[in-house]
């Protein structure tokens, strides 16, 4: 049997298991039992009719393998009853802890014996303060935890998937408590301590260099010190894969080791008679690659690279002839056998797709191009072949990637990486030699980043709106068509298959309609309003102590995903950070034509004062601002926006409380079908008379999951329930979208029920939801 055939079916089964709907998990155990029994049938019973089904057994085995991992991880989540409770836990810091603006962020692996039952094995914790934390230390910590939960928005980072993929069953923070005690320091011989020591030496050697984070990423796989600006340049030029330990770098190190051993081995015939030189070189390559992976903490990308290397060298070590496609598929099977959740990694798909493209381009062709021609051809082919993948995963296209990689790949692989590794090793030797070598690597990187920054600053639109699966599949076919041999007829037709991907058509609302999207920004507010030819953002979410903000992390990616390139207007309801914290990022990226604010004097950017009764029309939709001039607080002086159009009238209320509500009621004109619950549902808002004046049939509220303020308050919830007004919360739904028929699309409930999603009841609130 062709090995690639069963490997392909096994991988397909693993994919089906990971895509298993969460709503069907209760049936997964029964399915696993049935799969095991049915898998034995074709092998135990030799009836002729069972033979055709033996191939399908590999599909069911892949499904069983991934479903078993899914069930184990799903049951390893924090029980609901342990949320928001102080817990004393014991464990060890795994990986390298990351220094943040306010303290530390780290992964904590719990000891098997814990005081509290059913706790997950791995936690993601934050700890404020100036204390020093080191990898491998054992601690007793008092923590407050919650189930894995993340913001859910169009174009946003799927934090819940990241937690599930890394088998983290709870997140939280360390409480200030005298019971927090260091039980044991890390062993000096442990891998984590060794890597941490190297990190400290690199930081000391390159303390004044901006390239310090890049060198750390290349030498020990620690990317925590790479700045946001550097990442943006790398992403914009498609070179981000080079500035961290990747499969390419593991392959380069393995290749250098193999070349050295091969040249040396052939000089000693006595050794070559005992062990053939090719096998010795293969062993050396595997050991060098594994050592480099260990230096990077044996992270998931390096594990994948070492497995691929081992499978690739198996033909030499086992004296077997493997076809390249078989080796690639067997390597993929080996990766998912060790970790079935590897298919949730973007790097898994990009790395295997890149190798497949190179094999498809070079193996079995009649003409073998020269080295320079091959390098150019490979970069162009990788750009074309990976374009659908990068568009689907990142919703952006790095148009300068072929040219940038043509310079960056040889420079980083053959100059920077050897210098970074040599310098890091020499840091263990007394004297300044290691620091000098690292400084030289940093100078080369400085020049490269200067060049890449020039590419990134070109006025080229790189963002793509969210595209359909059909457009992605057509682009994949188009890429294969373009890379066919020269004899293939009409290869240029492959370009046409890219058009649905590169020229996507956005779903613009018809004349007289508007789209309304409440983003999930945690404890804050940001709403996107869009008509046929205009777009507006109402508030921009909070900023955070880490130094980032919802504007950069959530609002900007969501606007890109919606296909919005420029804003016609921006309204900042009032001065508080949970509504205005992300304004600078939104203004910088989308340059709104005008900005209205409740308190313009409180912001560094230029804005106009919100005026009561100001009206304008966009594409048949009427907008009107309401403002309480006599308000005494910033909350009550929020700029309120009323939108009159189809499918319903909406009232966006900012943070007004009972006084602001009463002041607005004086002039009337508050009736609306959809009400944004004032002040996130605080006890001092949503007055009975105000609800009667608005008379909504639907209500949205924007709050953070398990927020400390306790929003929305139970009394406020009861007021809406008494009027039978459906109440949707971003804390449970994620983003909220108003559909054309007037119903609310709840992203967490109405989207595909992925197994990693935090499953909560989102129909209506009750006090039980807020445990």
Give a short summary of the structure:
The protein has 771 residues and is an alpha/beta fold. α8 (247-265) crosses α15. Helices cover 44% and strands 13% of the residues.
Quickly list its features.
about 775 residues, alpha/beta, seven-stranded mixed β-sheet, 26 helices, 21 strands
Q: Please, could you describe this protein's structure?
A:
The structure is a single chain. Helix content is 44%, strand content 13%. With 771 residues, the protein is of the alpha/beta class. The strands form three sheets. The chain has an eight-stranded mixed beta sheet. Strands 13-14-15-16-17-18-19 form a seven-stranded mixed beta sheet. A five-stranded mixed β-barrel has the order 1-2-3-5-4. The longest helix has 26 residues, at 401-426.
């Amino acid at each position: 049997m062709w090995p690639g055939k069963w490997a392909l079916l096994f991988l397909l089964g693993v994919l089906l298991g990971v895509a298993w709907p969460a709503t069907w998990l209760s049936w997964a155990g029964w399915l696993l039992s049935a799969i095991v029994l049915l898998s034995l049938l074709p092998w135990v019973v030799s009836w002729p009719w069972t033979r055709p089904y033996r191939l399908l057994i590999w599909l069911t085995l892949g499904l069983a393998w991934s479903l078993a991992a899914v069930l184990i991880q799903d049951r390893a989540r924090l029980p609901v009853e342990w949320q928001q409770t102080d817990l004393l836990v014991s464990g060890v810091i795994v990986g390298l802890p990351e220094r943040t603006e306010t303290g530390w962020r780290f992964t904590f692996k719990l000891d098997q014996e814990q005081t509290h039952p059913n706790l997950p094995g791995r936690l993601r914790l934050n700890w404020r303060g100036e204390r020093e934390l080191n990898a491998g230390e054992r601690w007793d910590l008092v923590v407050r935890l919650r189930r894995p939960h993340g913001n859910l928005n169009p174009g946003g980072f799927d934090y819940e998937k990241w937690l599930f993929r890394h088998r983290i069953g709870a997140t939280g923070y360390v409480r200030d408590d005298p019971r927090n005690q260091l039980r044991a320091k890390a062993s000096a011989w442990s891998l984590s301590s060794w890597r941490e020591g190297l990190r400290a030496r690199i930081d000391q050697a390159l303390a004044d260099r901006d390239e310090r984070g890049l060198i750390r990423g290349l030498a020990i796989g620690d990317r925590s010190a790479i700045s946001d600006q550097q990442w943006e340049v790398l992403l914009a030029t498609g070179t981000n894969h080079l500035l961290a330990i990747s499969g390419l770098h593991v392959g380069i190190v393995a290749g250098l080791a193999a070349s050295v051993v091969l040249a040396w081995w052939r000089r000693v015939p006595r050794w070559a008679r005992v062990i053939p030189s090719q096998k010795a070189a293969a062993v050396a390559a595997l050991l060098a690659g594994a050592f480099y992976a260990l230096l990077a903490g044996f992270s998931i990308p390096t594990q994948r690279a070492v497995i691929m290397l081992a499978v690739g060298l198996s033909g030499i070590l086992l004296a077997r002839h493997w076809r390249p496609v078989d080796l690639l598929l067997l390597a993929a099977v080996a990766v998912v056998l060790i970790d079935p959740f590897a298919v949730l990694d973007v790097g898994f798909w990009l790395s295997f797709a890149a190798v497949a493209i190179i094999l498809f381009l070079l193996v079995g062709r009649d003409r073998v191009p020269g080295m320079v021609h091959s390098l150019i051809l490979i970069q162009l082919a990788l750009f074309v072949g990976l374009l659908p993948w990068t568009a689907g995963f990142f919703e952006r296209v790095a148009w300068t990637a072929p040219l940038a990689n043509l310079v960056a790949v040889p420079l980083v692989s053959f100059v920077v990486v050897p210098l970074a590794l040599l310098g890091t090793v020499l840091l263990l030797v007394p004297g300044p030699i290691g620091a000098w070598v690292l400084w030289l690597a940093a100078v080369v990187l400085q020049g490269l980043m200067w060049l890449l920054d020039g590419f990134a600053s070109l006025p080229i639109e790189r963002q793509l709106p969210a595209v359909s699966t059909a457009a992605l599949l057509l682009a994949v076919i188009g890429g294969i068509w373009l890379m066919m041999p020269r004899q293939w007829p009409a290869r240029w037709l492959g370009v046409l298959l890219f058009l649905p991907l590169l020229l996507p058509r956005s779903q613009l609302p018809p004349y007289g309609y508007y789209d309304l999207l409440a983003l999930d920004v945690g404890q804050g507010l940001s709403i996107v309003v869009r008509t046929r030819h205009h777009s507006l953002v109402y508030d921009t979410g909070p900023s955070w102590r880490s130094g980032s903000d919802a504007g950069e992390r959530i609002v900007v990616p969501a606007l890109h995903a919606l296909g919005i390139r420029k804003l016609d207007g921006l309204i900042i309801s009032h001065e508080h950070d949970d509504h205005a914290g992300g304004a600078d990022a939104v203004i910088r990226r989308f340059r709104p034509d005008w900005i209205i604010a409740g308190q313009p004097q409180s912001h560094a950017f230029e804005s106009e004062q919100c005026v009561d009764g100001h009206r304008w029309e966009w594409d048949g939709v009427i907008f009107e601002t309401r403002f309480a001039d006599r308000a005494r607080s910033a909350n009550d002086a929020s700029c309120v926006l009323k939108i009159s159009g189809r499918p319903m009238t909406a009232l966006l209320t900012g943070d007004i409380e009972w006084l602001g509500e009463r002041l607005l009621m004086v002039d009337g004109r508050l009736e609306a079908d959809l009400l944004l619950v004032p002040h996130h549902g605080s006890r001092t808002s949503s007055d009975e008379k105000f609800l009667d004046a608005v008379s909504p049939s639907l209500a949205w509220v924007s709050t953070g999951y398990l927020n400390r303020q306790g929003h929305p308050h139970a009394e406020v919830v009861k007021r809406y329930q008494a009027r039978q007004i459906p109440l949707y919360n971003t804390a449970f739904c994620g983003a909220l979208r108003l559909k054309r028929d007037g119903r609310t699309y709840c992203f967490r409930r109405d989207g595909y029920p992925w197994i990693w999603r935090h499953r909560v009841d989102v129909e209506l609130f009750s006090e039980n939801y807020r445990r």
